[in-house]
C-alpha cells in the first residue's frame, strides 16, 4: 500500500470480497471511495488510522455488521456515505466526535434504535441528514432544528411515530437567503478530484444531485407512522423545494398560508387523513410542478387557477367529496370558462418540464465554468484538528 496516497477511488469496478485491512495503513488518505461494488464483510475497524480522511464513501455494496465505533476517530471527516448496504444496529455514539460532518448518509440499511439527540449539538455543521429506509423508531427529535445549516432531512420509510415537531419551521438552512449564500460561498465540492453527490427520491423517481446539490432543500418524512396535523410553522420555510409527508396518519386541514412556501416544486401529502377544503391560496404557488393530495378526506371544489390548471386527476383521486376539474365529478357551481383560460396562460411559461430540467441546466453551466476557470473549491479543514 501507498502510505502517502491522498486520493483512492475504485468506485464502480465490480470489486468483490472484503475490504482489505491494509487500507488502514494508507495514513495520508484524504478521500476513500469504494462505492458501487460488490464488497461484503464488515467495515474494517482500523480505518481509524486514517486521521486525515475527509470523505469516506462505501455506499452500494453488501457490507454487513455494525458501523464500527472506530469511525468516530476520524475527526476531520466531512462526508460519510454508508447507504445501500446491509448494516445493522444503532448509530454509534462515537460519531458525535466527527464534529465537522456535513454529509451523513446512512440510508437503505437495517439500522435501528432512535435518532440520537446528540446529532443536534455535536455535529453543528451538518447539511444533509439521510437516514431513509432503515428501522429507526420513536419520535423525531425537535432539537434537529438547532442544526442551522441543515438543508436536506430524509427520514422516510422508517418506524417513526408521534407528531411532526413544531420546531421544524425554524430550519435556518431552508430559508432562501441561507440556501443561496451556501451555494455562492462554499459550494458543495469536496475537492477538485472528488465530487459530492446524493440520491434523492423525488416524485417516485430517484434523482442524483451533484453540482446542484447545494441548491436543494428537502424534507421527506414519508412512509412512517406520524400522526397529528401538518404544523403551520412549516409555512415559514420559504426556501423549501420538496416536502413529502405521504403515507402517514396525519390529519387536519392544509394551513391557509401554505402559499408562503413560494419556492415549493414538489408537495406530496397523499395517503393520510387530511380533510377540509384545498386552500385557494395554493394557486399562487407558481413553481409547484408536482402535487399529490390523493387518498385523503378533502372536500369541496378543487381550485382552478394558476398551477392547478396543469395537474391531472391523479393529484386529487381518492377524495370522495372533491369535485371539479380535473376530476370527472363536476361541482354544481362553476367559475366559467375564462377563469380557467387565464390560469392556463399564467402557467404556460413555467411548464413542469422546465423545473425538472433546471438542475440539469445548472449542472452543465457549472461544468463549463469550471473548465474555463480551471478552479474548483477544495476541502477546508479547520486548523488545530
Automatic annotation (TrEMBL):
<keyword id="KW-0732">Signal</keyword>
<keyword id="KW-1133">Transmembrane helix</keyword>
<dbReference type="InterPro" id="IPR003591">
    <property type="entry name" value="Leu-rich_rpt_typical-subtyp"/>
</dbReference>
<keyword id="KW-1003">Cell membrane</keyword>
<dbReference type="InterPro" id="IPR046956">
    <property type="entry name" value="RLP23-like"/>
</dbReference>
<dbReference type="GO" id="GO:0005886">
    <property type="term" value="C:plasma membrane"/>
</dbReference>
<dbReference type="InterPro" id="IPR001611">
    <property type="entry name" value="Leu-rich_rpt"/>
</dbReference>
<keyword id="KW-0812">Transmembrane</keyword>
<comment type="similarity">
    <text>Belongs to the RLP family.</text>
</comment>
<keyword id="KW-0325">Glycoprotein</keyword>
<keyword id="KW-0433">Leucine-rich repeat</keyword>
<dbReference type="Pfam" id="PF13855">
    <property type="entry name" value="LRR_8"/>
</dbReference>
<keyword id="KW-0472">Membrane</keyword>
<dbReference type="Pfam" id="PF00560">
    <property type="entry name" value="LRR_1"/>
</dbReference>
<keyword id="KW-0677">Repeat</keyword>
<protein>
    <submittedName>
        <fullName>Receptor-like protein 42</fullName>
    </submittedName>
</protein>
<dbReference type="InterPro" id="IPR032675">
    <property type="entry name" value="LRR_dom_sf"/>
</dbReference>
